Amino acid sequence: MKAEAYNIENIVQKVIEEINNRNNTSNNQKGVFNDMNDAIEAAWLAQKKLVKYNLEFRNKLVKAMREEIRKNINLLSKMAVEETGMGRYEDKIKKNLLVVEKTPGVEDLKSEVFSGDDGLTLLELSPYGVIGAITPTTNPSETIVCNAIGMIAAGNGVVFSPHPSAKKTSLKTIELLNKAIIEAGGPENLLTSIKEPSLSNAEIMMKHKKINMLVATGGPGVVKAVLSSGKKAIGAGAGNPPAVVDETADIEKAARDIIAGCSFDNNLPCIAEKEVIVVDSVADYLIFNMKKNNAYEIKEKRDIERLEKLVINEDGHPNKSYVGKNADYILKKIGIDCGPEVRAIILEVDRDHPFVVEELMMPILPIVRVKDVDEAIRLAVEVEHGFRHTAIMHSKNVDNLTRMAKEIQTTIFIKNGPSYAGIGVGGEGYTTFTIAGPTGEGLTSARTFTRKRRCVLVGGFSIK
User: What is the pLDDT of residues 86-101, one digit of tens each?
Assistant: First the structure.
C-alpha cells in the first residue's frame, strides 16, 4: 500500500510539473497560466493537497495572505488607479486595508450539532472543491483578496477570471497571495488565473467539469451568465442605492455622511449612494450642508444638460470614460473650473432623470424633492429596481426607518450613516466585496463557499 501511495504521489507531482512547464516561465507570476484548462487543472491538484491539512493550517495560510497584502497595499492601490483610470488612490488603500482586516477566515466555519434520544447528528461545513471566480474592474485587488481569504479558509482552490481592464492589478494580487501561501508551507497554484483574461476563457471556466462552483462579482451580464451555467452559482450584481432623508433627520450629519459615502473611491462601490430623495421641507438645508462638505452644486439647466450629454451615451447608459473619475475632472469637461477639494457634484432633477434611474458609478449625485416620507419611500423602492442591494435612510423616526427597511428589502440597509458603514467601515460587522443580492447569499464569507454535510451517529453519544 505504501508503494502504491508513493506511485500516486509521483504521478500527481509529474502532472503538476508538466503543467508548470507549459506555463509561461518568462511571465514569472505564480499561478498565472497561458491556458485556462491548465489553470483549472493546477488549482484542482492544489486543492486536493489543501484538504489534507487541518483548520489550523488553513488559518496559517490566511494570516500569511493578509500580511503579504498589507505589505503591498500601496503598490496594489497605485496599480489599480493607474491601470483602470478609476477611483482615488487614498480610497483604494482604505478598501484594501478593509479586506485584509475584516474579511472572515476559518473562524467563520461554525459546526452545528443535534442530540437526543436517537443519538447525535453533526453538521459540518466542507469545501466545494474548485471555485471559478469572476472579478470586476472597479474593485480588482479588493475582490480577489476578499474572495481568496474566504474561499481558501473554506478549503477550496480558486480559478480567477479577472476583468481584462484590470488584469495587471488582478494578476499581481494573485501572484502575491500565492507567494504568501507557498512561503507559509501551502501548495502551489491554490489560486490560479490566465495571462490574458477574456470572455472566451471565462466561458471555458464556467463549463469545465472540475469547476464546482461559480462566483461572479460584476454587472448583470456576468451574473446572468453564471446563473445559466447549470452549476452552483453566486451572483453579486449591480445596485442603485437610494438615500432617503426625512424631516426628522439630523440634516447636518446626513449631508456629511451622504457626501462621504457617495464620493468614496469616486462612487465605484456598488453600495455607494447613487441618488438622494429628500422631503421638501428640509431639502434646501440639506443641499446647503452638502456644499459645506465639498459638494459642487450645478443649478443652471444648461449645465445640467451638458453634463447629461457628457456622461450618458445615446443608448441611455453611462459613458464608461467617466466612470470613477474625479468630480473636478468631470466638471472641467463641461467648462466649470474648480479645485480638487470638490468630492461630488450635486444637482436637482426630476424623478425619472437618467441620473436617478441609472447606476452611474461616478461622483454625481442627483437630488429629488418629494412632499413627504411616504412618497420618499415609494420612490426609493422604485428606483432601486428590485436589485435588493443597498439602501440608506437618515431619520430619527423609528417607524419610518422600519417601514422603509421592510418595503425596500435590500441586502444592506444603513440607518443614519454613510453607505460604507454597511461593509464594516464605521459600522459593526465583517466586510465583503461580493454582495450576493440576486442569489440571496447576501454578504458572502467563508461559510458561503462551503456545503453542509450531515454525519449521523444513531443511538449513541447522547448524554443528556
Answer: 999 999 999 999 999 9
Task: Please work out, in degrees rounded to the nearest 5, the angle formed at the alpha carbon of residue 177 by the alpha carbons of 172 and 178.
Answer: 95
Q: What is the mean pLDDT of the chain?
A: 94
Q: Are 111 and 124 in contact (CB under 8 A)?
A: yes
* Beta-ladder partners of 134: 161, 216
Residue 26 has pLDDT above 50, yes or no: no
* CA 410/CA 386 separation, integer angstroms: 8
**Residue 248: what are its φ and ψ, rounded to 5°?**
-95, -5
Residues ≥6 apart with Cβ < 8 Å to 266: 86, 87, 88, 91, 324, 325, 326, 327, 362, 363
**pLDDT value, residue 429:** 94
Rounded CA separation 144/410 (Å): 24
- Is the pTM of the predicted complex or chain greater than 0.70? yes
The predicted model gives 421-431 an average pLDDT of 95
CA dihedral (185, 188, 192, 195) positive or negative = positive
Q: Cell numbers at residue 297, please?
A: 452644486
Rounded CA separation 149/423 (Å): 16
* All three cell numbers of 428: 459593526
Distance CA 54, CA 313 (A): 53
Q: Report whether 107 contacts 135 (CB < 8 A).
A: no
For residue 93, count CB atoms less than 10 angstroms from its CB and return exposed for 0-12, middle for 13-18, buried for 19 or more: middle
How far is Cα 402 from Cα 168, in angstroms, rounded to an integer?
Answer: 44
Question: What does the longest C-alpha to C-alpha distance in the chain come to?
Answer: 82
Q: Take residue 129 and report the three cell numbers written for it.
A: 472543491
**214 near 225, Cβ under 8 Å?**
no
Report the sign of the C-alpha dihedral through residues 75, 66, 96, 226, in that order.
positive
Are 298 and 305 a contacting pair, CB within 8 Å? no
Contact 299, 284 (CB under 8 A): no
pLDDT surpassing 80 at residue 209: yes
pLDDT over 70 (residue 426): yes
Residue 128 phi/psi, 5-degree rounding, is -80, -35
The reported pLDDT for the residue numbered 14 is: 60
What stretch of H or E contains 209? none
**Which letter does DSSP use for residue 186 in this model?**
P
Cα–Cα nearest to 296, from 368, 364, 240: 364
Cα–Cα distance for residue pair 408/386, rounded to 1 Å = 8
- Which domains occur in the chain, in start order? 2-237+443-455 (3.40.605.10), 242-427 (3.40.309.10)
Distance CA 400, CA 196 (A): 50
Q: Record the cell numbers describing residue 318, joined without a space.
A: 453611462
